[in-house]
Amino acid sequence: MNLLMHICCGPCTIYPLKELRTHGHAVTGLFYNSNIHPYQEYLRRKQTLQEYAGKILLNVVWPDGYPMEEFLSQVANRHEDRCVYCLTDRMKYTAEQAKKDHYDAFTSTLLYSRYQKHDLIRQIGEELGHQTGVPFYYQDFRVGWNEGVKISREMGMYRQPYCGCIYSEKERYYA
Question: Which listed residue, 12, 128, 151, 156, has the most CB atoms within 10 A of its CB?
Answer without folding.
Answer: 12
